[in-house]
Amino acid sequence: MRHVVVAGIGQTAFGKFLDRNVRSLAEEALSAAVADAGVDYQQIGMTYFANALSGLVTGQETIRGQVALRNTSLMGSPIINVDNACASGSTAFHLAWLSVASGQTDVALAIGAEKLTHIDKSVTFGAFAAGVDVEERAHLQREAPQGHSVFMDIYSERARRYMESSGATPEDFALLCVKSRQAASLSPWAQFRQPVTTEEVLSSRMISAPLTLNMCSPIADGAAAAILVSEDVARSLRARRVYVRASKLVSANNDGDGPTCASRAADEAYEYSGFGPEDIHVAEVHDASAPAEIMLYERLGFALPDQGVKLLREGVTSVGGRLPVNPGGGLLSRGHPVGATGIAQIVELTTQLRGNAGKRQREGAEVALAECSGGQIGKDSALAAVTILSSFQ
Asked: Which residue among 171, 185, 266, 306 is the one 20 to 30 A from 230 at the CA level?
């Protein structure tokens, strides 16, 4: 397998844009990534277009990538549509990496775009519910209030179990939100940039105990793109090289028991890259709810079981800490336009490894990890992707 370099990145701001469509969002992110890489459109040999839910919101299905990119110079070249729940963007990145690493092409594009806002929120919540086994979903939807995301009930159940085993409290989850907003206040791409206090988080509307509104990732529209190239092509480009050291994707065990998807994907990525959790300087993880980030500290090996909350309390994972996690604000504050999320993580980490993250920069960052999970099967996410990047080969 060949060495692969992230040569260009670009994204839109994330937010609620009722007046924009998937096409305009995708075009903006693509244009930024191409300009950043300094490549010609004609050099892009493969395009992987991630879009998970907006087909259910907008009605555009099956040829989403071709429709979104129809006004660009990519038309006529291979465009492959990718739908893999919340890890759709990460999957598109994985496929782009594979296509370059295998020698199939020298330049590949991973792009994710999502349009989720709708005047009727039940349409959006119904789209999110598609990420659960339909037979399980029917039961969950009967239990959930009208206009309510079934995923927050899933996350709240996990949070209650974690509180029992670890001693974590709602105040800890609120502290995580404060950390997230502080990071997002330093990012030009984040949906929510206004700092909050623990009191404001705890007093926000209860969604599914112990999760309040501010502890849940918001609905968002947005797009992100990454251009991957072979090392030979990278030598001719101006951008500082960021190497893909591992890209691993796994699915849930059939019964949902045993090591979680995130843990198994991380173990495979560590083994493939030769790095361990102690080598990671900065990370982006799938914090669809505040407790999820803390639990992922443990699943990724940053902390021992039931000890992840200590990293939060000690400031280790804050901007300025030894291991900042979600320095771009994460899903909680950057927003979660599902198909774009996994690639937005790559955009943030590439920015960090280039040393261009400004006030949210992790000084001396050389190795970074992205984790993104998606869907629900039994007791676990349906799949998880872990990517490891470095500023050196």
From this structure: 266
